Amino acid sequence: MSIIAPSILSADFAKLAEDIAHVERGGADWIHVDVMDGHFVPNLTFGPMVVQAVRPHTQLPLDVHLMIEHPERSVAEFAQAGADRITVHAEACVHLHRVLHMIREQGLPAGVALNPATPLAAVEHVLDDVDLILIMTVNPGFGGQQFIPHSADKVRQLRRLLRERGRDEVLIEVDGGINAETAPLIRAAGADVLVAGSAVFSETDRAAAIHALRPGGEASA
Ligand SMILES: O=C(CO)[C@H](O)[C@H](O)COP(=O)(O)O
Ligand SMILES: [Fe+2]
C-alpha cells in the first residue's frame, strides 16, 4: 500500500483551498494537517477553526497530526471540526492508552507518533489500541528538514513487531524529509503512508511531484 499525504504546512496559507484542490487533482490520497502549539514543538500553526474552514474544500481525508501538549483537551474539538483521523505524540501523553480510546470514541482511527529519539517500546503496549503509527523521520516542528537515515531501520523493526504481534494491518506513516530519493528506501522498509510537504508544494507540477513518490515514480522525477 502506498498512500501519499501532502502536508499543508508547506502550502501557501493565503490560498490554502486552492493549494489543497491542486494536490487533490494531482492524485493525493490524504491531506496532512500539522497542528503545532509552540510548546510541544517550537512553532505555531493551525487550530480546529482552520480544519473546519478547509473541510468543505476537499473530498480527501484530513489526516490531523497533533504536535501539541495535552492533546486529550482538543481531540473532540478537532473531530467535530472535520478531522478524519487523529494522531497524537506518545511524548505528549501521560495517559496514551486513554487518549487513543478518546479518538476512537469520536469514531476516528487513532494514531500515535514517535519522535526520532523515542524507542518503539513506547507503543509496545498499545498495539491493539492504534490504527496507525507515525514514525517521525525528522524532529517535529518545521518543514523542509533532512530525512534522518536511521529512521528506515526503525520502520523495519516496527513492521517486524506488528507482524509478530498479529497487528500487520496497523498503518505505518512516515513524516519529514520524504522526497523522490528517500521514498523508495522508506517504502521498502515497510511504510504505508508517506507525508510530504516541501517535496510536493515546492514544485509547480504537484501531480508530477506526487507521482515521483509512488512506486516506480522516482524514475521520472
Ligand atoms: O510534521 C511535520 C513537521 O513536524 C510535517 O508534516 C513535515 O515536516 C513535512 O514537511 P517536509 O516534507 O517538508 O519535511
Ligand atoms: Fe506532520
TrEMBL record:
GO cellular component terms given for this protein: cytoplasm
CC cofactor: Co(2+); Zn(2+); Mn(2+); a divalent metal cation
Binding site for substrate: 7, 65, 141-144, 175-177, 197-198
Active-site residues from the entry: 34 (proton acceptor), 175 (proton donor)
Molecular function via GO: D-ribulose-phosphate 3-epimerase activity; metal ion binding
Catalytic activity reported: D-ribulose 5-phosphate = D-xylulose 5-phosphate
Cofactor note: Binds 1 divalent metal cation per subunit.
A Pfam family assignment: Ribul_P_3_epim
A single BP term in Gene Ontology: pentose catabolic process
CDD domains: RPE
InterPro entries to which the protein is assigned, alphabetical: Aldolase_TIM (IPR013785), Ribul_P_3_epim (IPR026019), Ribul_P_3_epim-like (IPR000056), RibuloseP-bd_barrel (IPR011060)
Keyword Manganese: yes
Pathway(s): Carbohydrate degradation
Similarity remark: Belongs to the ribulose-phosphate 3-epimerase family.
Function field: Catalyzes the reversible epimerization of D-ribulose 5-phosphate to D-xylulose 5-phosphate.
Protein name: Ribulose-phosphate 3-epimerase
Organism from which the protein derives: Paenibacillus sabuli
Lineage: Bacteria, Bacillati, Bacillota, Bacilli, Bacillales
The gene coding this protein: rpe
